[in-house]
Amino acid sequence: MTAIIDYDAGNIKSVEKALLFLGEKASVTRDKEEILNADRVILPGVGSFGKAMEKIRGYGLEDVIKETISRGIPFLGICLGLQLLFEQSEECEGVAGLGILKGEVVKIPEREGGKVPQIGWNSLAYPRQGRLFDGVPEGAYVYFVHSYYLKAKEKDIVTAVTEYNTLIHASVEKDNVFACQFHPEKSSEAGLKILHNFIGIQKEGK
Predict the structure, then answer these.
(1) What's the average model confidence in pLDDT over 108-130?
(2) pLDDT tier for residue 111 given thresholds of 50, 70 and 90
């Protein structure tokens, strides 16, 4: 069973529907025991970094997320969920992220021909192909909706990048923690394959 963390962020239902389509049991929850007893956990979301961290802390989910990861349970952040795993975001200066991974989230620079926010399909390149992309060819197109992007401090955790006005760290993997700036649940066959690969990842130590 996959627990989808509910912290009043958008886009949760589409993630749940994608998992159900793949035959995976899913529960949208903020219950500590249900999250900690899940086979894997997803932190989805769209919206404001600051508001999201306020909700996560208000619901007492920060410690639950950190305990989930420390237990070796496979954990996937999607879109805003990726950004929240890092230390800070230019969107809401002074608001600390979860700090599970090192790096910052910054505004996509304005460039002629590249409107911000980025909304649409873009192709991926793999500096180091991670487990999420097994069977997903380099150059596959996935769906993005974002104005801010990740600059990871640890370059060796970056498993996919894309170009949109700048080089964007589109996906990361470190131990049992995975994250995508794009929306796999809205990325057609490639996205479903990515979610299928995540479902197949076992708890660390198993």
Answers:
(1) 92
(2) confident
Beta strand pairing call for 177-180 and 75-78: parallel
What angle do the packed helices 188-199 and 12-21 form, to 10 degrees?
A: 80
List the catalytic residue out of 91, 92, 173, 183. 183
Query: What structural domains and CATH numbers belong to the chain?
Result: 2-199 (3.40.50.880)
Average pLDDT, stretch 75-87? 97
Is position 154 annotated as part of the catalytic site?
no
Q: Indicate which residue of 79, 91, 180, 196 is catalytic.
A: 79
Active-site residue, from 16, 91, 173, 185: 185
Task: Give Cβ neighbours of residue 1 (< 8 Å, ≥ 6 apart).
Answer: 24, 25, 26, 27, 38, 39
Q: What is the pLDDT of residues 21-74, one digit of tens each?
A: 999 999 999 999 999 999 999 999 898 999 999 999 999 999 999 999 999 999
Catalytic-residue membership of 79? yes
